[in-house]
Amino acid sequence: MSNLLVNTRDQQFVLFEQLGMESLLEAEEFNGFTKDDLLMVLNEAEKIAVNVIAPTMAEGDKVGCTFEGGVVTVPKCFHEPYKKYTQGGWLCPAASAEVGGQGLPSCVAFAIVETTAAANYAFYMYSSLTLGAANLLDVFGTQKQKDKYMYKLFSGEWGGTMCLTEPGAGSDVGALKTTAKRRPDGTYLITGTKCFISSGDHDLTPNIIHAVLARIEGDPAGTKGISIFVVPKYRVNEDGSPGTANDVATGGIEHKMGIKGSATATLNFGENGECIGELLGKERQGMRIMFQMMNEARLNTGLQGLEMASACFERAVVYARERVQGNNILAGKDPDAKPVTIIHHPDIRRKLMWMKAHVEGLRAMCYYVACCMDKAKVAQNAQEKDKWNGYVELLIPVVKAYTTDKGFLICSMAMDVLGGYGYCSEYPIEQYLRDEKIATIYEGTNGIQAMDLLGRKLRQRDGDNTRALFSDIAGNAAAAKKVPELAASAAILEEAAGACFALADFMVEKTKEDAAMAYLSAAPFLELFGDVVIGNFLLDAARICIDKRDAIYQGKGAVTAEERLDVCRQDTEAAFYSGKVASAKFFAADVLTSVKARCEGIRLCDKSAMEIAQEAFTY
Ligand SMILES: Cc1cc2nc3c(=O)[nH]c(=O)nc-3n(C[C@H](O)[C@H](O)[C@H](O)COP(=O)(O)OP(=O)(O)OC[C@H]3O[C@@H](n4cnc5c(N)ncnc54)[C@H](O)[C@@H]3O)c2cc1C
Q1: Rounded mean pLDDT of the chain?
Q2: What pLDDT shows up at residue 66?
Q3: Is pLDDT above 80 for 619?
């Protein structure tokens, strides 16, 4: 039965049957875990998501955050669940035991996040930014900074933030105006305003530790001159308790379309000239250091795309199987035909199949990136480490942008499946749709991600990462071609991947000779890239599933199509495996067939959008 959040069977499939998690458990770093341990953890994550977090979602949206008398409060219903969540160790399952984590592989941590954040993303955000700040201190902090701040962040006792954005510096972080002035004791006076800061102020924790980008007086303009500082809301006493206020004032919170339970604050640092920050790492290394947090946040935002899409899809299936409306089109004009549940209607079937295929493909892609992170961690030599890290780097903008763009469309399509009821707050789809939208905007808009893929990531390591990824895809397509049932889909993938890879080369060249043309097509290119990547994972999954599905059919003596359908109605494993095969075939036919044509469209180098006068857009 669906938990209305995620398909836990598919999570397990991706982890163990597709990505081969068990072999990862042989590495020293993870050999303290067995498959059963991991399944137990995932099961517990499902319980806390369903029983503790999900009940806060609608209430958190209704109540939202408030700002009165300079104080920000989060929905009351968040407080107890947050304690349970952090005390249960859910904030940092992949962190090492030394800092209070469980040392789980990242791909399992991704699955945990998928489940728990799908239950209420606004709630989850408080912990995700806290973890990001904790991880920064873990890698770049001095021992003193770790003792002072880090452990309390990992435990969830205090909150954390990431402060980049300013009113005049959004996508262009280098334009920031916040300054840092050296003090004789080695600390810095911070002055400036940061806006849109998630979890910037709230009453969930007694202290909040901000990671703040600022420019030290006299340092160069642009990103090169940026440093990063640890700025607590309250200074920390000798005994580790929060002390006097650190001149960080909250100017207000935003009234937003979604994630209303997540406080998005404007923070004024040093209005009274008394905001003290500690340098993290070295001077002018701020962007490099912050990139660690931003990369984590980008992957997390990609996961947000998946989480809400998954929850909406699960709801849509349940609804479509219950809602009775209209006669079966196959009944023709039969006057005695009875109305059927809407899942009988071809158009609803197509929508569900589109959502199912995308959700599964996105899940596989997100977990794959986490798996690459794990493989980099256990790599035996630098070359191997570089390879896995290279895949992560290449796929980060794709995970962030493609998953959130498609995630939003999936939520929207789920609303269509529910019809008018989906548009109303009686069902949570409309909230998911609102909560999902921000994911295409923050952590670098999806437009900026597309530019990152084209301008930087495709050619990293001289293009080796891109070449290796497409070579893997070609290998998968060749393997799938040998399976008769998948041969046609594999040929479609092969052609699509070939066209996309050739276009990647073409586009990289264009960035040098005709930047306007190249960047006009950056977003459509990222979409093509994502289509090919998830099409590859779906086909790879189908190849694994076919044998398992057929073994069940064989064991039950099911030969005809009707007998096999009957088996699937009674045997959840047969249903699961046959559903995965269907996802791959559908995706190849519905999405991948258009890849080559879309590549050709981009190669036409149409520049109308750049060439017309601005006045010609409207008048
Ligand atoms: C709810 C919420 C939470 C947030 N949380 C945080 C947080 O915790 N910490 C934080 O620091 N920030 C946070 N942000 C800020 C967020 O990251 C920015 O809003 C985002 O980076 C975009 O900046 P902007 O809003 O100034 O838009 P702009 O940068 O003005 O962009 C407007 C449009 O122009 C495009 N654009 C801009 N520059 C270029 C370019 N050079 N080339 C092509 N297109 C371009 C963008 O893609 C976008 O479509 C949050 C924002 C919101 C709404």
Answers
A1: 97
A2: 98
A3: no
Assess whether the C-beta atom of 257 lies below 6 angstroms from ligand 1.
Answer: no
Does any ligand 1 atom lie closer than 6 A to the CB of residue 447? yes
Mean pLDDT of the region 71-96: 97
Cα separation, 205 vs 160, whole angstroms: 10
pLDDT tens figures, 500-553: 999 999 999 999 999 999 999 999 999 999 999 999 999 999 999 999 999 999
Given the DSSP bridges, would you call strands 179-182 and 208-216 parallel, antiparallel or unpaired?
Answer: parallel
Q: Collapse the DSSP code of 260 into the 3-class scheme (helix H, G, I; strand E, B; otherwise coil) and give the result.
A: coil
Question: What torsion do the CA atoms of 426, 429, 430, 433 make, to the nearest 10 degrees?
Answer: 170
Rounded CA separation 263/23 (Å): 41
DSSP assignment of 539-580 equals: HHHHHHHHHHHHHHHHHTT--SHHHHHHHHHH-HHHHHHHHH
What value does the mean pLDDT take over residues 206-216? 98
Confidence of residue 178 (pLDDT cuts 50, 70, 90): very high
What is the Cα–Cα distance from 8 to 446, expressed in whole angstroms? 28
DSSP three-state, residue 391: helix
Strand, coil or helix: 324: strand
Going by alpha carbons, the residue nearest to atom 20 of ligand 1 is: 442
Confidence grade of residue 378 (pLDDT, cut at 50, 70, 90): very high
Does the structural domain 8-144 have CATH classification 2.60.40.1180? no
Ligand 1 center to 163 CA (angstroms): 13
How far apart are the C-alpha atoms of 372 and 356, rounded to whole Å? 24
pLDDT tens per residue, range 28-56? 999 999 999 999 999 999 999 999 999 99
Note whether 48 and 120 are within 8 A (CB).
Answer: no
Whether 8-144 shares its CATH topology with 156-289 is answered: no
Q: Residues near 370 by Cβ (< 8 Å), separated by ≥ 6? A: 105, 106, 107, 109, 110, 299
Q: Which atom of ligand 1 is nearest to the CA of 441?
A: 20
Q: Which atom of ligand 1 is nearest to the CA of 262?
A: 1
Q: Is 121 touching ligand 1 by the criterion CB < 6 Å? A: no
Confidence of residue 168 (pLDDT cuts 50, 70, 90): very high
The torsion defined by the Cα of 216, 220, 221 and 225, in degrees rounded to 10, comes to -60
What confidence score (pLDDT) does residue 534 get?
98
Handedness of CA 162, 168, 170, 176 (dihedral sign): negative
Instruction: State yes or no: pLDDT of 312 exceeds 90.
Output: yes
- What integer is the mean pLDDT of 368-396? 97
Of the candidates 166, 278, 443, 494, the residue annotated as catalytic is 443
Q: Which atom of ligand 1 is nearest to the CA of 259?
A: 1
Q: Is the CB of 198 under 6 A from ligand 1?
A: yes
The dihedrals phi and psi of 387, each to the nearest 5 degrees, come to -60, -50
The share of the chain scoring above pLDDT 70, in percent, equals 100
Q: For atom 11 of ligand 1, which residue has the closest CA?
A: 164
> What are the residue boundaries of the structural domains of the chain, listed by start?
8-144, 156-289, 292-608
Residue 278 annotated as catalytic: no
Contact 169, 177 (CB under 8 A): yes
Q: Ligand 1 pocket, 357 CB below 6 A? A: no
Q: What is the mean pLDDT of residues 105-127?
A: 98
Instruction: Determine if the pTM surpasses 0.85.
Output: yes
User: What's the CATH code, domain 292-608?
Assistant: 1.20.140.10
User: Domain 156-289, what fold?
Assistant: Butyryl-CoA Dehydrogenase, subunit A; domain 2 (2.40.110)
